[in-house]
Amino acid sequence: MSRTEIAFYWLLFASFTGFALMVWDKHQAKTGGWRVAESTLIFWAVVGGANGVFAAQQILRHKTTKQPISSILTTLVVIEIPLCLTLYFYASQLLPRP
User: Fold this and answer.
1) What InterPro entries is this protein classified in (predicted)?
2) What is the gyration radius of the CA atoms in the chain, in angstroms?
């Protein structure tokens, strides 16, 4: 497995984890349970999960006006989307064609 593929799969994993944490936090907010710390959500966004956290934020309408998480997520998504597209297209050129 190439470094590009590893990076691509890491971004998928981090995005899925960030999305799941946002879903869990929304559930906990509704039921009054223990919440996920914003620092944890920001951590997963910074290490590659910004797309997942941002998607959950928009789908669930959760933490959309809360600062600084909203502006941090927007900034990270602007950085991460081109990175994901670059990795995808670069990896597709490395893979053998059927």
Assistant:
1) DUF1294
2) 15
